[in-house]
Amino acid sequence: MPRTLVSFIVVLAACSRAPLAAREQVENQARAAANRLKSALMTELTEALQRGGPVAALEVCSGRAQTITRATATPGVRVGRTSHRLRNPSNRAPEWLQATVDAAARGGSVEPGLRELAPGRFGYFEPLVTQPMCATCHGTDLPDELRTAIAARYPQDEAVGFKPGDVRGFVWVEVDSQ
Ligand code: HEC
Predict the structure, then answer these.
(1) Residue 127 · residue 107 · CB < 8 Å
(2) pLDDT tens figures, 76-130
(3) Which ligand 1 atom lies nearest to the CA of residue 159?
(4) What are the CB-based long-range contacts (under 8 Å, 24+) for 48-57?
(5) Which of 37, 47, 66, 87 is the pocket-test mutation for ligand 1 (most atoms within 8 Å of CB)?
């Protein structure tokens, strides 16, 4: 093989590896942000449930969830939670994720994913599966007192009737890598 062709191939290989490495780095960064949000919410929720039971925990969650979510953001990284059946209407999905949320509602794919939204801008998402603990506030047959407390804060609540194993929603992350 002529030397020029060999070096051309080497250069090509190097070029195609660079964006892949960048993509992997973004994905790691996004996954770390999603984990930070999930574990912060989970800690707060578990403690509140143990301390005061579901109605008290609901108050903690409704007061703190948005603050915790905003606090998880870092420069160039936005984080949120959404669902096809929302409790808080301000958790509506960003436009780029809406089709995935709709597909999940119809029983479609619920694998985590990363998309390039624009050059250097990425959207990452992962499904949140209902666990038995989640059904306390998102399940079927909630106690009256809890139902009343939910209706008082979230008159348009659609986030009940989930069973363990159901996709409850998504965590999403937007990363500006430039
Ligand atoms: C103590 C009651 C409670 C428990 C337990 C609970 N949630 Fe929620 N959940 C809420 C409240 C309240 C909101 C609305 C928070 C807000 O205002 O952003 C909410 C919102 C959400 C949202 C954001 C989308 C939406 O509907 O607004 C997702 C996703 C979610 N919960 C998933 C879960 C999962 C998964 C679990 C179990 C790991 C869980 N929740 C356990 C009370 C609860």
Answers:
(1) no
(2) 999 999 999 999 999 999 999 999 999 999 988 789 999 999 999 999 999 999 9
(3) 26
(4) 49/133, 49/136, 54/136, 54/137, 54/142, 54/143, 54/146, 55/145, 55/146, 55/149, 57/136, 57/137
(5) 87
